[in-house]
Structures are given as C-alpha cells and as structure tokens.
Amino acid sequence: MFEKLKQFKDLRDKAKTLQNALSGKTITEEKNGIKIIMDGNMTVKSVAIQTEMSREEIEKKLPDTINETIKKTQRLMAEEMKAMGGLPGMN
Question: Has this prediction a pTM greater than 0.85?
C-alpha cells in the first residue's frame, strides 16, 4: 500500500514539474488574420484580430485558429513529457 502512495506522490510531483515547465513556454498561431498566443498550460494569453475583418469572418475563422493553437500546445506538452521521461506508471 505504501508503495502505491509513493508512486502516486511521484506522479503528482512529476506532473507539477511538467506544469511549471509548460507555463513558461508560449505557442503563437497566426492564421487568417487572427493571432493567438497560448502558454504551455493551454491558457490563452492574447488574441489579436485584424480590424478590417467583418464579424462574420471572425466568427468563421476564429475556431480554426484556436484549434490549431491547441494542437500545437498539445504537441509541446507531449514533447516535454517525453523529455522528462514520461510519467511514472504510464509506460
């Protein structure tokens, strides 16, 4: 039982280390006149939209740009996890 608790603590510690490492990284996606900056923990830091775009254009293009930013962030998360040797118990 104590071994399971130790494994859980190790997993939690490693996840916290990963979260801290990712918070210092940023991902920028610029597409269709929309620029999104997100940190490695998937928190949107900024959104910039060209002023000449209509509301309809923004509504049409924004989801795609957000989704691309999320995909890039997920790839970064996977790379960071791999660099850290993965998470214990997830091998």
Answer: no
